[in-house]
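To: structure desk
From: M.T.
Subject: fold request, one chain
Message: Could you run this one when you get a chance? Sequence is below, nothing fancy, just the single chain.
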Amino acid sequence: MSQEINPFKGSDINNNSIAEADNLLGQYIPMHYHFQMLEDEARMTGFKAALDYLVPEGGKVLDMGAGTGVLSFMAAQKASRVYSVERQPEMVQCARGLLTENGCGGKVELVQGDARDYLPPEPVDVVVCEMLHSGLLREKQLEVIQSFKDRYREKFGEKLPVFIPDATILGVEPISADFSFQGYQAPISFFEDPGILSARYLSLGEVIPYCVLEYQAEIPTQLSFDGLLSVSKEGRFNALRFITKNLLAINLKNGATIDWMNLNLILPINEPIDAKAGDQFQVSFNYEAGGEIQALKSSIVVMKS
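Reply: Done. C-alpha coordinates follow.
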Protein backbone atom coordinates (compact mmCIF):
# COMPACT_ATOMS: atom_id res chain seq x y z
CA MET A 1 0.00 0.00 0.00
CA SER A 2 1.40 3.41 -0.89
CA GLN A 3 1.92 5.89 1.87
CA GLU A 4 -0.65 8.65 2.29
CA ILE A 5 0.43 11.90 0.67
CA ASN A 6 0.58 14.84 3.05
CA PRO A 7 -0.80 17.84 1.11
CA PHE A 8 0.75 20.24 3.64
CA LYS A 9 4.33 18.95 3.39
CA GLY A 10 6.72 21.67 2.36
CA SER A 11 4.03 24.36 2.53
CA ASP A 12 3.57 27.35 4.79
CA ILE A 13 0.36 26.01 6.34
CA ASN A 14 0.62 26.45 10.11
CA ASN A 15 0.70 23.66 12.68
CA ASN A 16 -2.93 24.28 13.70
CA SER A 17 -4.07 23.51 10.15
CA ILE A 18 -2.02 20.30 10.11
CA ALA A 19 -3.42 19.29 13.49
CA GLU A 20 -6.94 19.96 12.19
CA ALA A 21 -6.28 17.75 9.16
CA ASP A 22 -4.99 15.02 11.45
CA ASN A 23 -8.16 15.26 13.53
CA LEU A 24 -10.21 14.59 10.42
CA LEU A 25 -8.08 11.56 9.64
CA GLY A 26 -8.43 10.11 13.11
CA GLN A 27 -4.74 10.64 13.82
CA TYR A 28 -5.17 12.63 17.01
CA ILE A 29 -6.77 11.16 20.13
CA PRO A 30 -7.26 13.57 23.07
CA MET A 31 -5.82 12.65 26.46
CA HIS A 32 -9.21 11.99 28.06
CA TYR A 33 -9.88 9.29 25.44
CA HIS A 34 -6.62 7.61 26.45
CA PHE A 35 -7.93 7.57 30.02
CA GLN A 36 -11.08 5.83 28.80
CA MET A 37 -8.92 3.26 26.99
CA LEU A 38 -6.95 2.65 30.19
CA GLU A 39 -10.26 2.11 32.00
CA ASP A 40 -11.48 -0.38 29.38
CA GLU A 41 -11.01 -3.65 31.28
CA ALA A 42 -11.67 -5.88 28.25
CA ARG A 43 -9.09 -4.02 26.17
CA MET A 44 -6.44 -3.96 28.87
CA THR A 45 -6.92 -7.58 29.92
CA GLY A 46 -6.93 -8.79 26.31
CA PHE A 47 -3.76 -7.01 25.23
CA LYS A 48 -1.94 -7.98 28.44
CA ALA A 49 -2.83 -11.65 27.93
CA ALA A 50 -1.78 -11.55 24.27
CA LEU A 51 1.56 -9.90 25.07
CA ASP A 52 2.20 -12.31 27.96
CA TYR A 53 1.55 -15.23 25.61
CA LEU A 54 3.37 -14.05 22.48
CA VAL A 55 6.40 -12.07 23.68
CA PRO A 56 9.36 -14.44 24.20
CA GLU A 57 11.48 -14.01 27.31
CA GLY A 58 14.21 -11.53 26.38
CA GLY A 59 12.58 -10.81 23.01
CA LYS A 60 12.23 -7.58 21.02
CA VAL A 61 8.92 -5.75 20.52
CA LEU A 62 7.70 -2.82 18.43
CA ASP A 63 4.75 -0.75 19.69
CA MET A 64 3.27 1.34 16.87
CA GLY A 65 1.18 4.22 18.18
CA ALA A 66 2.33 4.17 21.80
CA GLY A 67 -0.23 6.58 23.30
CA THR A 68 0.32 6.58 27.07
CA GLY A 69 2.88 3.76 26.70
CA VAL A 70 0.79 1.13 28.49
CA LEU A 71 1.27 -1.58 25.83
CA SER A 72 5.02 -0.89 25.80
CA PHE A 73 4.95 -1.32 29.59
CA MET A 74 3.15 -4.66 29.26
CA ALA A 75 5.60 -5.85 26.60
CA ALA A 76 8.59 -4.79 28.73
CA GLN A 77 7.62 -7.29 31.43
CA LYS A 78 9.17 -10.04 29.26
CA ALA A 79 11.02 -8.26 26.43
CA SER A 80 14.62 -7.11 26.72
CA ARG A 81 13.91 -4.17 24.39
CA VAL A 82 10.77 -2.37 23.28
CA TYR A 83 10.84 0.10 20.41
CA SER A 84 7.92 2.48 20.64
CA VAL A 85 6.77 5.19 18.22
CA GLU A 86 4.18 7.91 18.81
CA ARG A 87 3.32 10.84 16.56
CA GLN A 88 1.89 13.40 18.99
CA PRO A 89 4.55 15.36 20.97
CA GLU A 90 2.38 15.75 24.08
CA MET A 91 1.72 12.00 24.17
CA VAL A 92 5.45 11.27 23.81
CA GLN A 93 6.17 13.51 26.80
CA CYS A 94 3.38 11.88 28.80
CA ALA A 95 4.46 8.33 27.91
CA ARG A 96 8.13 8.97 28.72
CA GLY A 97 7.21 10.17 32.19
CA LEU A 98 4.79 7.30 32.84
CA LEU A 99 7.20 4.63 31.59
CA THR A 100 9.92 5.99 33.86
CA GLU A 101 7.50 6.12 36.81
CA ASN A 102 6.57 2.49 36.12
CA GLY A 103 10.18 1.35 36.16
CA CYS A 104 10.67 0.37 32.52
CA GLY A 105 11.96 3.60 30.93
CA GLY A 106 15.37 2.00 30.41
CA LYS A 107 13.88 -0.89 28.41
CA VAL A 108 11.69 1.21 26.13
CA GLU A 109 13.12 3.38 23.36
CA LEU A 110 10.33 5.87 22.67
CA VAL A 111 10.56 7.86 19.44
CA GLN A 112 8.42 10.74 18.23
CA GLY A 113 7.49 9.95 14.65
CA ASP A 114 4.94 8.64 12.20
CA ALA A 115 4.39 4.88 12.44
CA ARG A 116 4.00 4.81 8.65
CA ASP A 117 7.67 5.79 8.33
CA TYR A 118 9.37 4.32 11.41
CA LEU A 119 11.37 1.07 11.49
CA PRO A 120 13.22 -0.34 14.50
CA PRO A 121 17.01 -0.59 14.19
CA GLU A 122 16.91 -4.40 14.45
CA PRO A 123 14.45 -7.25 13.77
CA VAL A 124 11.68 -7.70 16.35
CA ASP A 125 9.70 -10.74 17.48
CA VAL A 126 6.33 -9.05 18.03
CA VAL A 127 4.57 -5.96 16.70
CA VAL A 128 1.62 -4.55 18.63
CA CYS A 129 -0.50 -1.93 16.88
CA GLU A 130 -3.74 -0.67 18.42
CA MET A 131 -4.92 1.92 15.93
CA LEU A 132 -8.28 0.17 15.89
CA HIS A 133 -11.64 1.81 15.35
CA SER A 134 -15.10 0.32 14.80
CA GLY A 135 -15.37 -1.11 11.29
CA LEU A 136 -11.65 -0.30 10.84
CA LEU A 137 -12.75 3.26 10.10
CA ARG A 138 -11.04 6.55 11.05
CA GLU A 139 -7.74 5.22 12.41
CA LYS A 140 -4.93 4.00 10.14
CA GLN A 141 -4.41 0.43 11.40
CA LEU A 142 -4.36 -1.20 7.96
CA GLU A 143 -2.27 1.49 6.27
CA VAL A 144 0.29 1.49 9.08
CA ILE A 145 0.70 -2.29 9.17
CA GLN A 146 0.92 -2.68 5.39
CA SER A 147 3.51 0.10 5.18
CA PHE A 148 5.47 -1.53 8.00
CA LYS A 149 5.42 -4.95 6.32
CA ASP A 150 6.70 -3.59 3.00
CA ARG A 151 9.55 -1.63 4.60
CA TYR A 152 10.43 -4.34 7.15
CA ARG A 153 10.80 -6.99 4.43
CA GLU A 154 13.02 -4.70 2.40
CA LYS A 155 15.32 -4.07 5.37
CA PHE A 156 15.28 -7.38 7.25
CA GLY A 157 14.07 -10.07 4.82
CA GLU A 158 10.83 -11.93 4.23
CA LYS A 159 10.23 -13.29 7.75
CA LEU A 160 7.74 -11.05 9.52
CA PRO A 161 7.24 -10.68 13.27
CA VAL A 162 4.04 -11.82 14.99
CA PHE A 163 1.29 -9.20 14.97
CA ILE A 164 -1.06 -8.22 17.79
CA PRO A 165 -3.86 -8.33 16.79
CA ASP A 166 -3.46 -11.39 14.60
CA ALA A 167 -6.76 -10.84 12.76
CA THR A 168 -9.92 -8.74 12.69
CA ILE A 169 -13.41 -9.98 11.83
CA LEU A 170 -16.00 -7.47 10.62
CA GLY A 171 -19.72 -8.26 10.69
CA VAL A 172 -23.06 -6.58 10.03
CA GLU A 173 -26.62 -7.29 11.18
CA PRO A 174 -30.07 -5.77 10.67
CA ILE A 175 -31.59 -4.15 13.73
CA SER A 176 -34.67 -2.28 14.90
CA ALA A 177 -33.56 0.87 16.70
CA ASP A 178 -35.73 3.11 18.87
CA PHE A 179 -34.54 6.58 17.89
CA SER A 180 -37.22 8.38 19.92
CA PHE A 181 -35.92 10.57 22.75
CA GLN A 182 -38.68 12.20 24.81
CA GLY A 183 -40.76 12.14 21.64
CA TYR A 184 -37.96 13.67 19.56
CA GLN A 185 -37.10 11.46 16.56
CA ALA A 186 -33.32 11.46 16.02
CA PRO A 187 -32.07 8.63 13.75
CA ILE A 188 -28.35 9.39 14.01
CA SER A 189 -25.21 7.26 14.06
CA PHE A 190 -23.78 6.22 17.42
CA PHE A 191 -21.53 3.77 19.23
CA GLU A 192 -22.70 0.98 21.53
CA ASP A 193 -20.86 -1.00 24.18
CA PRO A 194 -20.84 -4.62 22.92
CA GLY A 195 -20.99 -5.85 26.52
CA ILE A 196 -24.09 -3.82 27.41
CA LEU A 197 -26.64 -4.13 24.62
CA SER A 198 -29.66 -1.89 25.16
CA ALA A 199 -33.24 -3.13 24.64
CA ARG A 200 -33.75 -0.01 22.52
CA TYR A 201 -31.67 -1.51 19.70
CA LEU A 202 -32.88 -5.04 18.92
CA SER A 203 -31.31 -7.53 16.53
CA LEU A 204 -33.61 -8.71 13.74
CA GLY A 205 -31.28 -11.37 12.32
CA GLU A 206 -27.89 -13.05 12.42
CA VAL A 207 -24.56 -11.25 12.20
CA ILE A 208 -23.05 -11.82 8.75
CA PRO A 209 -19.24 -11.52 8.45
CA TYR A 210 -18.16 -9.34 5.54
CA CYS A 211 -14.39 -9.33 6.08
CA VAL A 212 -11.93 -11.66 7.83
CA LEU A 213 -8.61 -9.85 7.79
CA GLU A 214 -5.33 -11.57 8.72
CA TYR A 215 -2.49 -9.15 9.35
CA GLN A 216 0.18 -11.54 8.09
CA ALA A 217 -1.60 -11.75 4.72
CA GLU A 218 -2.27 -9.07 2.11
CA ILE A 219 -4.25 -6.18 3.56
CA PRO A 220 -7.13 -4.63 1.58
CA THR A 221 -7.57 -0.91 1.08
CA GLN A 222 -11.33 -1.14 0.43
CA LEU A 223 -13.87 -2.96 2.60
CA SER A 224 -17.25 -3.91 1.16
CA PHE A 225 -20.33 -6.13 1.33
CA ASP A 226 -22.95 -7.07 -1.24
CA GLY A 227 -25.22 -9.83 -0.02
CA LEU A 228 -28.40 -10.89 1.72
CA LEU A 229 -29.37 -10.14 5.30
CA SER A 230 -32.22 -12.32 6.60
CA VAL A 231 -34.76 -11.16 9.17
CA SER A 232 -35.80 -13.79 11.74
CA LYS A 233 -38.35 -11.72 13.65
CA GLU A 234 -40.89 -9.04 12.90
CA GLY A 235 -39.82 -5.46 13.42
CA ARG A 236 -39.04 -2.06 11.97
CA PHE A 237 -35.77 -2.57 10.08
CA ASN A 238 -34.22 0.89 10.27
CA ALA A 239 -30.50 0.48 11.06
CA LEU A 240 -27.41 -1.69 10.65
CA ARG A 241 -25.14 -2.73 13.49
CA PHE A 242 -21.45 -3.04 12.54
CA ILE A 243 -19.42 -5.38 14.76
CA THR A 244 -15.62 -5.45 15.02
CA LYS A 245 -13.96 -8.43 16.72
CA ASN A 246 -10.18 -8.51 17.06
CA LEU A 247 -8.35 -11.81 17.56
CA LEU A 248 -5.40 -10.54 19.57
CA ALA A 249 -3.68 -13.91 19.77
CA ILE A 250 -4.39 -17.50 18.71
CA ASN A 251 -3.10 -20.48 20.68
CA LEU A 252 -2.51 -23.04 17.92
CA LYS A 253 -2.07 -25.86 20.44
CA ASN A 254 -5.58 -25.72 21.84
CA GLY A 255 -7.36 -23.48 19.33
CA ALA A 256 -8.22 -20.87 21.97
CA THR A 257 -8.22 -17.18 21.11
CA ILE A 258 -7.69 -13.96 23.07
CA ASP A 259 -10.34 -11.57 21.77
CA TRP A 260 -11.27 -7.93 22.12
CA MET A 261 -14.23 -6.14 20.54
CA ASN A 262 -14.40 -2.50 19.51
CA LEU A 263 -17.56 -0.55 20.19
CA ASN A 264 -20.41 -1.52 17.87
CA LEU A 265 -21.27 1.12 15.30
CA ILE A 266 -24.98 1.64 14.57
CA LEU A 267 -25.92 3.45 11.37
CA PRO A 268 -29.53 4.26 10.43
CA ILE A 269 -30.60 3.35 6.89
CA ASN A 270 -32.26 5.92 4.64
CA GLU A 271 -35.68 4.27 4.33
CA PRO A 272 -36.99 2.22 7.30
CA ILE A 273 -38.84 -0.97 6.32
CA ASP A 274 -41.53 -2.95 8.15
CA ALA A 275 -40.03 -6.45 8.08
CA LYS A 276 -41.51 -9.87 8.81
CA ALA A 277 -39.79 -13.09 9.85
CA GLY A 278 -38.33 -14.73 6.76
CA ASP A 279 -37.85 -11.52 4.78
CA GLN A 280 -34.52 -11.06 3.02
CA PHE A 281 -32.82 -7.82 2.08
CA GLN A 282 -30.10 -7.14 -0.44
CA VAL A 283 -27.59 -4.93 1.38
CA SER A 284 -24.46 -3.36 -0.06
CA PHE A 285 -21.86 -0.88 1.13
CA ASN A 286 -18.29 0.03 0.31
CA TYR A 287 -15.73 2.18 2.11
CA GLU A 288 -12.03 2.88 2.39
CA ALA A 289 -10.18 1.41 5.36
CA GLY A 290 -9.41 4.28 7.74
CA GLY A 291 -12.03 6.46 6.06
CA GLU A 292 -14.80 8.50 7.60
CA ILE A 293 -17.99 7.05 9.10
CA GLN A 294 -20.13 9.25 6.86
CA ALA A 295 -18.51 7.71 3.76
CA LEU A 296 -19.67 4.26 4.89
CA LYS A 297 -23.15 5.55 5.79
CA SER A 298 -23.56 7.26 2.41
CA SER A 299 -22.66 4.07 0.54
CA ILE A 300 -25.33 1.87 2.21
CA VAL A 301 -28.04 0.55 -0.11
CA VAL A 302 -30.87 -1.65 1.23
CA MET A 303 -33.50 -3.31 -0.98
CA LYS A 304 -36.06 -5.97 -0.17
CA SER A 305 -35.20 -9.16 -2.04
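Reply (cont.): Confidence is low (pLDDT under 50) at residues 1-15, 17-26. Let me know if you need anything else for the meeting.
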